Amino acid sequence: MFLKKFRSNAIYLSICFLAIYIQTRNSTQLETVWDNFYYLFYGVSSTGFSLYTYIFFNIVFLGSPFLNQHYFYATVNGEFYYLLIRFQSFNNWFKQLFKEIIIGSSLIIIILFAYTFLFSLLWNLKIENSFTVENNGTINILIYHYFINGFLQMINYNLILLIVVCSTKKIEYVLLSSGILLILGLPNFNLQTLFPVALNSFGYMTLNFSDTIQITITLTFYIVIEIIIIQYLLNKRIIIS
């Protein structure tokens, strides 16, 4: 799916690259590569957020799932019978789709990490095994949180919006759901980090690695629930009703 939608993803990645460039260039107080990562992907925390960083954070992690919904919508409303003949069953189609979501999300996470890292070096930021701006974690926790929880967060967004598409088959509900996800990610609504929204924010990262693992467990739990819901929709053929 990532490769099929190359043009849309190229535009999305270009926007991310530009935002990373502007953010890094304007953050003159940064000293290390990891400081840059921390500020770029800060997102939100239990104490608050910056509107600019929150917007950037959602462009990165919600932008691609949002673009994928146009593919989901077109499939459900026009190509589904063709795909049903091709894959022989609804479940086979979803298995293939889920693999593509995993591959696409992984590629985006890796590409953005590599770009941020290399651009930070070009901006003469140092590679040190520490933060100089916050004492909210270690480099190992940061890398784990970025790759594992960032990946799981994108999978959650994709599956949540896929559920909306399959159950409503209306693009306006997808737009509404995206707005709701943005709101639910705010600390006032997700104070106990119960919703699978913006949980990969570096603002939630602490020196206690178990807190990061707890986020992984929460995101994984929701993915399992979302897959069960999608399986139900497919088995009941609500998707084509």
Describe the structure.
This protein has 241 residues and is mainly alpha-helical. It has one domain. The chain is built from 7 helices and 2 strands; from the N terminus they run ααββααααα. Strands 1-2 form a two-stranded antiparallel ribbon. Helix 3 (51-87) packs antiparallel against helix 4 (90-122). The two termini are 25 Å apart. The mean pLDDT is 85.
Element layout with pairings:
Elements: H1 6-26, H2 33-40, E1 44-45, E2 48-49, H3 51-87, H4 90-122, H5 139-168, H6 171-184, H7 209-235
Antiparallel strand pairs: 1-2
Key structural traits:
mainly alpha; 241 residues; two-stranded antiparallel sheet
Oligomer: single chain
Give the structural class.
mainly alpha
Sketch the topology as an H/E string, one letter per element: HHEEHHHHH
Quantity of strands, as a count: 2
Q: State the major sheet.
A: 2 strands, antiparallel
Q: What shape does the CA trace take?
A: globular
Counted up, domains total 1
Alpha plus pi helix count: 7
Mean pLDDT: 85
Task: State the low-pLDDT regions, or none.
Answer: none
Distance between the termini: 25 Å
Relative helix content: over 70%
CA gyration radius, whole angstroms? 18 Å
Which strand-content bin applies to the residues?
Answer: under 5%
Taking strands numbered 1, 2, ... along the chain, how are they ordered across the largest sheet?
Answer: 1-2
